[in-house]
Design a protein that fits this description.
This protein is α+β, with helices and mostly antiparallel strands. It has 8 helices and 9 strands. Helix 2 runs antiparallel to helix 3 and helix 2 packs across helix 5.
């Protein structure tokens, strides 16, 4: 049995599933109307299956089917009459279904190409992603806590020049906390061994404060890693009471320009090999031009 015949039987099943009183004055619909209706019918069927709601011919989906008829301004009688006509003219029905399959295939191609959900290049210019490397976003420290530092390391091959990294967190330190030099820090480590960093002092007053540290990748060099510490205290004796919550480390970057940025970095890190004697030739040529430029007119 061909695909078209199976589809035709499906349509017949729909008729029996949704039998109702029909207008005795039946009138068929045009080929174009039938084609458009069948396209929507298949899309409805696919949507119902994707939602685990059965198929369009299931009796509990009668409302979706009736809504589709209303959308196309087709009565049940017109649809029944049209199907009866094509039952007697299967070759014409096959030609209609060839058009249906062609248009559905084109729709699938358009979906994959992003026609219905076009890429928002403006949004891509300000893309963000979460880089926080730990599963936990809350930490509590007490007098029994051994560590006085909460460090993190992020390694990601996509990190690049012109990125912006933002570290945000809620921090609360008790007044009785005896730790000294309370700080949070974030660093960018470049492959040329250079480092950029920003340090933020934290306050011990029992208030829950929100801290934000922003740092830009300003060097035209590959980035090896992002490191830092949310708690970076000197070793403490006695009471140590602190809480960190709602931690986020986000990367803001230009997704559209990533390829050009990587090429620019590669050209800086791996310059083209020098041609032997080229600099000397240019130097001599420059000297000759200068001498000619200094000649007195006759």
């Amino acid at each position: 049995m061909s695909t078209n015949h199976r589809i035709f039987l499906l349509l017949v099943a729909i008729i029996f599933a949704f039998t109702s009183c029909s207008n005795p004055q039946r009138k068929t619909i045009s080929r174009k109307e039938m084609t458009n209706f069948l396209i929507d019918l298949h899309q409805l069927d696919g949507a119902l299956i994707a939602k685990n709601m059965g198929q369009v011919e299931d009796r509990n989906n009668i409302y979706y089917y009736n809504a589709l008829l209303n959308k196309h301004n087709i009565t049940k009688a017109q649809f029944d009459s049209t199907l009866s006509y094509y039952a007697k003219n299967p070759k014409k029905f096959e030609r209609i279904y060839s058009d249906v399959i062609e248009k559905l295939t084109q729709k699938e191609t358009d979906v994959k190409a992003g026609v219905y959900h076009p890429i928002d290049y403006v949004a891509l210019r300000n893309s963000t992603e979460n880089l926080w490397p730990l599963t936990s976003i809350q930490f509590r420290f007490s007098k029994d806590s051994t560590p006085t530092k909460l460090r993190f390391v992020v390694k990601n091959r996509q990190l690049a020049w012109k990125d912006q990294y933002k570290l945000t967190f809620l921090h609360q330190v008790g007044k009785t906390d005896k730790a000294k030099n309370k700080q949070a820090v974030i660093r960018i480590h470049y492959k040329d061994k250079k480092t950029d960093s920003i340090v933020c002092n934290t306050i011990s007053d029992s208030l829950l404060r929100r801290y934000t540290i922003t740092i830009d990748a300003r060097r035209k060099n590959s980035i090896d890693s992002i490191t830092g510490a949310l708690i970076n205290y000197n070793p403490v004796k006695g009471k140590f009471i602190a809480m960190i919550d709602s931690i986020k480390l986000t990367r803001k970057f230009d997704a559209v320009a990533q390829d050009s940025i990587q090429k620019a970095i590669q050209s800086i890190e791996n310059p083209a090999p020098e041609i032997p004697g080229l600099k000397q030739t240019l130097r001599i040529r420059s000297k000759i031009i200068l001498q000619r430029g200094n000649e007195k007119p006759e």
